[in-house]
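Hey L., structure's done. Input below.
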Amino acid sequence: MIYRAGWIEKNMGVSRKSLRVYEAKGLISPAINKRNNKYRDYTERDLVDIWNIKLLRGLGVPLSEIKMVLLNTAKLGEVLESRIAELEAEVERLERNIRVAVMIREAGKLPEPPEMGSVTYSDYLNDLCEKGCRL
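Output:
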């Protein structure tokens, strides 16, 4: 069966613009419609690739890495391990920021800043949390 971009957009939630980007970057290569070369004909295989691209993009995997996975030049497990590590680091950062925001809310005031240049911002936040997130 052949699918068109409009069907993909409506049924898979992937915009025509995204399809053009995926094609330009070599992630998909739909056939050019023989009657009108402005249109692309997408196969079931293309739909599977588009679905997988959408899934991996949803996880924040860059298109360059997705392409390597689709071309079998990178292992899916390794790409996902790297992304999981990035996501876990982001979770830690967000959890720290939540603790600091709660501390500030509960104190009803902003903490006094350190002497400028004496500590990095990240170290300052970490130090606040190590002290029990109290002002």
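Residues 76-135 form one domain. The two ends are 64 Å apart (CA to CA).

-- N.
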